[in-house]
Design goal:
The chain has about 375 residues and is mainly beta. The chain is about 5% helix and about 40% strand.
Length: about 375
């Protein structure tokens, strides 16, 4: 299941492709891609893996998205394992999100549209309003998953009214999810995962310009499709895109394969001066950049977002993973994908150094941080 950054019945993944084919399937800046105020110094794998936070940050919350807004708060949302609601937390520190009060700002419908599989919400502040992009399906057709949008005009997303703005329409009525939005050189973009009609895969990652926060404009182009051996284990999946801009380039992470221990992250790279809508300008790393690790006992890391630490400069990787490898039954029925954070390093050549998912580290927490 993905990231303008500022500052039912248990599902069965094995039905995904069938359902899709049947359907046809950081201090972030107010206007764009996550971008710190100064470039990060190059960081080795060892230092990138050094625990700076106590993981898990938030238990039983998958597909995490953290937005550090200009009001000084980190806003957190993620997938709840019941797939029935959208939650929101905030804190002035990343660690404080662990114990911050959690509000349910929206619940699924009992019937009809937006009635099942409430997945992968992201919260963005755009043109003076808050938007949440999320995936859902009708209660009567739980695999007809599409992208939907909520809007709140109040300056505080815990107040005001979250208005349902409807489905964000793409070129096809097929399985689609994991929308994220960012701006670059004056244009707003949407990146998301969708099944392309006639293709023998679950989802590829797509990109389109946006006319406004609710509308795509112009063509939609495919940036990556699952084709490499590590992208097609269990399911042929590219999903959960997230963008960070550094060192004259844009880097787009995405997640691949089934949601068990095979789940991992890939990387696309494009020059900041290039036309983002030309897929030929994007290069794809031949190997995954973030994978399960037996030493640290972290499995299935993925569906990430990016933020920055409280210093406003240190990049932070946000993702989910499990604490064990073996899962009984369908992985999507297992609730223990926990939100985790760790420092993101940078190599001397200016590319991100993800390191390995850090081990769990229990630390005393005397009261709530805010």
């Amino acid at each position: 299941m993905s990231r303008e950054h500022e500052l039912p019945e248990p599902p069965n993944r094995r039905l995904l492709l069938k359902g899709a084919l049947a359907a046809g399937a950081l201090t972030t800046l107010p206007a764009g891609v996550a971008q710190a105020s100064t470039p990060q110094a190059s960081t080795s794998h060892a230092s990138a893996s050094r625990p700076a936070y106590a993981n898990p940050l938030v238990r039983n919350r998958a597909d995490p998205h953290i937005n550090r807004h200009t009001d000084g708060f980190y806003y957190f949302t993620a997938t709840a394992p019941e797939y029935d609601r959208i939650i929101l937390r905030r804190s002035r520190t990343l660690r404080g999100l662990s114990t911050a009060d959690e509000s349910v700002i929206w619940r699924k419908h009992e019937t009809g549209a937006m009635g099942a599989h409430i997945w992968a919400p992201e919260i963005h502040r755009i043109d003076g309003k808050w938007y949440i992009y999320f995936a859902s399906a009708p209660a009567e057709d739980i695999w007809a998953i599409r992208i939907w949008v909520l809007e709140n005009s109040h300056r505080n997303p815990f107040k005001g009214t979250w208005v349902e703005r409807g489905q964000l329409k793409t070129a096809w009525e097929t399985f689609s999810l994991d929308a994220t939005t960012f701006t670059h050189r004056g244009s707003r973009y949407l990146a998301w995962a969708q099944h392309e009609p006639g293709m023998n895969n679950n989802t590829a990652v797509w990109l389109s310009r946006m006319a406004d926060p609710l509308t795509l404009t112009g063509p939609q182009v495919r940036l990556t499709t699952p084709e490499l051996d590590w992208e097609v284990i269990g399911f042929k999946v590219n999903e959960g895109p997230s963008v960070i801009k550094r060192n004259g380039r844009l880097f787009m992470t995405y997640s691949a394969s089934a949601t068990d221990f095979n789940y991992c992250m890939g990387l696309l790279t494009v020059d900041a001066d290039a036309d983002l809508m030309d897929p030929a300008n994007w290069s794809k790393s031949p190997t995954p950049v973030f994978t399960s690790n037996d030493t640290t006992k972290q499995y299935g890391p993925g569906h990430n977002s990016f933020t920055v630490a409280e210093d406003g400069r240190t990049d932070v990787l946000v993702y989910h993973a499990r604490q064990y490898k073996d899962i009984v039954g369908d992985p999507l029925n297992d609730p223990n994908r926990h939100t985790r954070v760790q420092r993101l390093g940078w190599k001397p050549d200016g590319t991100p150094d993800f390191g390995v998912p850090v081990a769990d580290a229990a630390t005393p927490n005397n009261g709530k941080e805010s």
